[in-house]
Design goal:
By secondary structure, the protein is an alpha/beta fold. The chain is about 45% helix and about 20% strand. The protein binds guanosine-5'-monophosphate.
């Protein structure tokens, strides 16, 4: 059995990456979502072990010391990190693993797994992004302004990604993501051994 592929997804807040991934995971049963660890507080509606593995700062620092994390970063004052074992076990089992992480973590993962696929989700426009952030109604105008500023900075890194998906219409963005996964599965470097197996028949 061939190993799975590793797909890293980044997007500024409000670009819809959670919804896109939720739908893509429902549509493709071979995708495995890597649940990150974080020291940030749980938000309403989140579940420990599903949204994140919620840990205290001390517990998180112990995970770092024990080498349990593939990568980690401090983002707006909280730790976020990818548990190593779950990712490598799933890849070995042939699952295609999806990481939803910010740009610094994505760059670190690329260093560790040069063959991983980097996907960046873009908003159709900044005006639309602003409208969506207001619609969520969870943040003050000041915080929204900050998020838009951060989004502009994050977008500068989109040039390092392999694929750019614009989330103008959710269904299309989900289709685009699934198409990227499908194409990557056919990439020669991800199909090692297939020609040899055929010739050995
Ligand atoms: P939030 O607090 O909104 O859930 O996440 C904040 C940011 O942290 C998002 O950009 C999210 O993708 C990123 N993030 C979540 N998990 C990880 C992780 O394991 N590693 C890194 N580097 N970033 C993460």
């Amino acid at each position: 059995m061939s190993k799975g592929i590793l797909i890293v997804v980044s997007a500024p807040a409000g670009c819809g990456k959670d919804t896109i991934l939720e739908q893509a995971l429902k549509a493709n049963g071979n995708l495995y979502y890597s649940v990150s660890a974080t020291s940030r507080a749980m938000r309403p509606g989140e579940t420990d072990g599903v949204s994140y593995h919620f840990r205290t700062r001390e517990q998180f620092e112990q995970m770092i010391a024990d080498g349990e994390l593939l990568e980690y970063t401090e983002y707006v004052g909280n730790y976020y990190g990818t548990p190593k074992k779950a990712v490598t076990d799933m890849l070995d089992a042939g699952k295609d693993v999806v990481l939803k992480i910010e740009i610094e973590g994505a760059a670190n993962v690329r260093r560790i797994f040069p063959d991983c696929t980097l996907v960046f989700i873009l908003p159709p426009s900044f005006a639309e992004l602003e409208r969506r952030l207001h619609k969520r109604g969870t943040e003050t105008d000041d915080v929204i302004k900050q998020r838009l500023e951060t989004a502009r900075k994050e977008l500068e890194f989109a040039g390092n990604y392999d694929y750019l998906i614009t989330n103008a219409a959710l269904e299309d963005a989900v289709d685009d993501f699934l198409a990227v996964v499908r194409a990557e599965k056919c990439r020669r470097s991800n199909r090692e051994g297939v020609i040899g197996e055929l010739l050995a028949e």
